Amino acid sequence: MMRKIDCAILVLALAFAWLGASAQQKADVAKPKKISPDLFGIFFEDLSYAADGGLYAELVQNRSFEYSPADNRDWNSMTAWRYETDGFGYGTISVETAAPVHPNNPHYILLDIQDEGQKGVGLENSGFDGIPVKAGKNYNFSVFLNALSGRSLPVKVALIDRKGKELCSSSFTTANKGWKKYAEQIHVNFDNDSAKLVLLIKAKGKVGIDMVSLFPEETFKNHKNGLRADLAQVIADIKPKFMRFPGGCLTHGDGIANIYRWKNTIGPVEQRVEQRNIWNYHQSVGLGYFEYFQFCEDIGAKPVPVLAAGVSCQNSGGTWKIGGTGQKGIPMEEMSAYVQDVLDLIEYANGPATSTWGAKRAAAGHPAPFNLEYLGIGNEDKITGVFEERFRMIYDAVHKAHPEIKIIGTVGPSPNGEDFEKGWKLADQLSVGIVDEHYYEKPQWFLKNTARYDSYNRLRSKVYIGEYASWGNTLFNALAEAVYMTNLERNGDVVRMASYAPLIARIGHTSWNPNLIYFNGTKVFPTVNYYVQQQFAANSGNEYLPGMIKLKGEKTAIDTTAGTSVVRDAATGDIILKIANAGNTELSGEADLSKISQLPKSATLTVITGNPEVKNSADNPQAILPQSSVIKLQKKWAFTVPAYSLTVVRISSANAKKSK
Ligand code: AHR
């Protein structure tokens, strides 16, 4: 997504000569400071159709007939489905729960076909705003059927267009009786953004139908039960150091029964326990803990699962509207089982394949551990006695059994206030390693608070900014975040991690705005904020090099509209300079590169700039893109960066070797 430009926007000028250099790319500039190697990551929440209808590649909506009015007032088992009798067939259709495929997945459709008519009788699914298919691609269809009449039945599966025209089909016959999974591969030789899937039984008889599924053969890294390749790739391109999942509010849930239970989300998909999504839709949990861990591994991000601290969301039942608290604690007599679930998660991720939970990971196809290092307990909970009691139980048990795990506590939903203070107090008492701060604020807030972490006591808990964003997707918003992020790098000794939120949202189904990435059924639209996040994550380091960039005039490294930072990445030896300018005038300054020994002759320069009020949208997705070019390097150089811009210069150690 990078465009090449000439680098006229950055004027580099030779200043004065360097006095001497030593070891290659050693950052022996003024007192380098060790900073977190995991600073910039992502936070995935199943919000705004981020999982089902989003990253999870399943194309059939409500495949297991488990939708219900509890998910959404207007929903039931037949949502996204249509009873298909267009060929003059008839019979009865009912939603049944007796003798299902698996007790965890109770609902299925029973067809009693009295006359199959000209075409058969069956079901039609409209997918998530239609089923997008592409010419030349294969699609994997599967279904669980139970031929209850005791004889084999002919079945046809087809894709049709919006007008009902058949586009392609495949046929098979069922066994005589009993639930059985049937799978067919469908080759498609046409493009259609809004096809429908039809399943027709072409004979008289009774048949149970469940788990009707259609996946593109090509998923991200081609895993079975995998993820949507284009969307996953855009996320991977951020190069996040970690991924927090499966949510914020989703994790602690709408009431105790809705708390996200990781054990419900692993194993064969037809045996997982589906549930209502707190954001008023449904979780098939087809994208469950195994898939989350696998995705983290695939994109090189450390997994950061967050589990409820034994309490539900304080806004459960919409109680925030009446000013009360809906926070409920898991009954104390059930807490030891809950604590055990938390410990079991660590075994699932890290235990040997011979351990009870490690064996389940191995059975899913991953005998090697997932190397869990971080674990979040709680999500911006109200810090009450009920919370504290349960948090302590979980914290103590994990800390005792797994001192190697870095526990992340929670300090409320705001950058200050009662829960923030109480959360920090509790963290002090327990010496919690890291606490999770959240803030959604105006861009001006980010610009005014660039010095926030300068005064943080380095002996207290470290900070994970688990959720933050300025309210908007314009370039100005993104630059306010960029300025702030240069200051996070400067404070990378106390700020261990940071993740913009929320990550992805399906257009037409957003429960929260702004988001980092928007998408529909066929396209992905990264925002300008996305490109800023990408620049920081892909160009992060583990050493902060102070004093290398001097801005002209009044501007300083912690100016409210400008931010600069220089980091060195030990893994590559590269040095990265960032100059963020959220101001309305050009910014000039000088960078002293003289102490970089074996300075290469050139570096990569990337600039994000444009009209501060512009955003990328579905209509104009490329309004603002990073623009890259190669620049010549000098030991000391003067620069001028445009108003409203982020400039990143990556000085590659590999280039230094080549320039030798
Ligand atoms: O990111 C959206 C929501 O914001 C999260 O679910 C919650 O933790 C926060 O309030």
From TrEMBL:
Enzyme class: hydrolase
SUPFAM superfamilies, per the entry: (Trans)glycosidases, Galactose-binding domain-like
Keywords: Hydrolase, Signal
Domain Alpha-L-arabinofuranosidase C-terminal: 466-645
Signal peptide (from-to): 1-23
GO BP field: L-arabinose metabolic process
Entries under InterPro entries matching the protein: Alpha-L-AF_C, ASD1_cat, Galactose-bd-like_sf, GH, Glyco_hydro_b, Glycosyl_Hydrolase_51
Superkingdom assignment: Bacteria
Enzyme Commission numbers on file: 3.2.1.55
Pfam family, one: ASD1_dom
Catalytic activity, reaction form: Hydrolysis of terminal non-reducing alpha-L-arabinofuranoside residues in alpha-L-arabinosides
MF annotations from Gene Ontology: alpha-L-arabinofuranosidase activity
Family: Belongs to the glycosyl hydrolase 51 family.
Protein name per the record: non-reducing end alpha-L-arabinofuranosidase
Organism: Mucilaginibacter gossypiicola
